[in-house]
Structure to design on (315 residues):
């Protein structure tokens, strides 16, 4: 018990420091800011989600005293609560239907969808601080982008005085949601890997090649993609949800690639090149998205995934 509390305190201090480092303006501070949930998630996955909850409350109280209530609320909504909730879900288990002695752990696909939901809600909450309707939110985004770009010297009379800013204001909310989603995915994965290496991971490592979503997810994606053309606040919300669901299916595409190449010679090299090109150029994400959507409709893994090799005969 004492050990868990100490770990929660250390995680709270690390997470609060990483979150507050963004005020320095340094480039490395941006990386630390995005990794702020990592200490809390690691504490939760190794020593129970209660550690993340206690650590989050401690960190929020510390930030409230040092940087004000607004910073504290921002930390609680974007770091502490998602870290606690996602870790709680990751550690959920129930007795197996066929064999009660074996546990069935919370499906990774549903966990990814919860990450998508958290990212969409966090972005939407941030947008509502700018206004209560689409017009006021767009106007506030454009004003903010204009100020930032003028300070940086990127706009002025010589380049159309920021004629592209309205386009950026439309792209910004879905882009922010995608960044939030990827940040949560990376933090959960890193936290689980770190705790697994330490030998304290409270659940077995899942087979990520089987990542899949409930059947109704495709229907939801179709509905929100259609709603994104309606206009107004409805379209803005639908665009946020569409963006994170597309990221989810891009991750499913990665799972398909892992599954279909499991018996391929030189598999590690090909997967390494895939990740390198994805990180450096970004455009392979579209290919992976198409693979993930195709798998959801036609079941590529079930049709084409190589079957495991039979065990060698006993001599």
């Amino acid at each position: 018990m004492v050990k868990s509390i100490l770990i929660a305190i250390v995680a709270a201090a690390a997470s609060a420091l990483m979150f507050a480092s963004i005020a320095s303006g340094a480039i490395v501070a941006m990386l630390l800011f995005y990794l702020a949930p990592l200490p809390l998630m690691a504490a939760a996955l190794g020593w129970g989600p209660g550690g993340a909850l206690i650590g989050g409350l401690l960190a929020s109280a510390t930030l409230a005293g040092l940087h004000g209530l607004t910073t504290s609320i921002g930390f609680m909504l974007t770091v502490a609560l998602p870290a606690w909730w996602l870790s709680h879900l990751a550690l959920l288990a129930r007795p197996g239907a066929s064999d009660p002695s074996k546990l069935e752990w919370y499906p990774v696909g549903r966990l990814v969808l919860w990450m998508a939901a958290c990212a969409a809600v966090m972005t939407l909450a941030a947008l509502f601080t700018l206004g209560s309707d689409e017009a006021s939110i767009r106007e506030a985004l454009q004003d903010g982008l204009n100020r930032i770009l003028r300070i940086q010297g990127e706009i002025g009379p010589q380049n159309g005085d920021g004629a592209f800013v309205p386009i950026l204001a439309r792209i910004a909310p879905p882009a922010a949601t995608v960044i939030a989603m990827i940040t949560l995915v990376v933090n959960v994965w890193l936290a689980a890997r770190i705790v697994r290496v330490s030998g304290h991971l409270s659940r077995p490592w899942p087979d990520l090649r089987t990542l899949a979503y409930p059947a109704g997810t495709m229907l939801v994606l179709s509905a929100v993609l259609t709603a994104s053309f309606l206009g107004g606040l409805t379209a803005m919300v639908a665009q946020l949800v569409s963006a994170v669901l597309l990221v989810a299916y891009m991750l499913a595409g990665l799972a398909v690639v892992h599954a279909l190449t499991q018996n391929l010679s030189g598999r590690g090299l090909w997967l390494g090149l895939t990740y390198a090109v994805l990180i450096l150029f970004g455009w392979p994400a579209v290919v992976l998205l198409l693979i993930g959507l195709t798998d959801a409709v036609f079941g590529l893994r079930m049709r084409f995934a190589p079957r495991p090799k039979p065990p060698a005969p006993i001599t």
